[in-house]
Amino acid sequence: MFTGIVEEIGTVRHVAETASGKRVEIGAERVLERLAVDDSINVAGACLTIVARDDRSFSVDVVPETLARTTLGRLARGSRVDLERAVTPSTPLGGHIVQGHVDATTALRARRAEGDGARLTFVLPKPLARYVVQKGFIALDGASLTVASLARTTFDIALIPHSARRTTLGALREGDLVNVEVDVIGKYVERLLSASRSS
After folding, report:
1. Residue 165 belongs to what domain range?
2. CA separation (Å) from 185 to 77, 129, 191?
3. pLDDT at position 39, please?
4. How many Å from the N-terminal Cα to the C-terminal Cα in the chain?
5. Residues 4, 114: Cα–Cα separation, whole Å
6. Nearest to 85 by CA among 135, 33, 130, 129
7. Average per-residue pLDDT in the chain?
8. Average pLDDT of the residues in 84-95
9. Rounded to an integer, what distance in angstroms lies between the CA atom of residue 145 and that of residue 126?
10. What are phi and psi of 188, to 5 degrees?
11. CATH number for the domain including 181?
């Protein structure tokens, strides 16, 4: 489990095809302080398992299911990715409960400067529309954000200057894709209500 508070932006050092998908090596500094083989890490919104590490980088295996559902299949040498280590019992819950289970990808439709920050408008994936609420939580590339406004086919994020600097969202351009994870609590509530009605 994660909180959606990005700890560091890592840089992809190497991508290799494997029999089970791809192995991605990511250069990092801060997250390596408490990271071992078999640990979970959130990479651009996807929960992955550390399969190797050294003093400057770590490696993860990305299977076809993840490559198909996320933007990770587009990673290449030099790509930048948001990173967050899994929470511990003492981790402050500064964002919201993020599983690292990407629901869909979506594109940045428009970007407008707001002082040193920005207003980002994204396409609202139709299958996820019922889970997205104004002033509710959403995770984009692993970053916990608040839905600033909501329309029938789009939603907006108000990106503060600090988040623009500390995440890859600050460098997004119109048309770029991001990984989306909606608030899991809404999905559980829907499932429970559906089961209650059917019984």
Report:
1. 104-192
2. 36, 15, 10
3. 97
4. 32
5. 23
6. 33
7. 95
8. 88
9. 19
10. -65, -40
11. 2.40.30.20
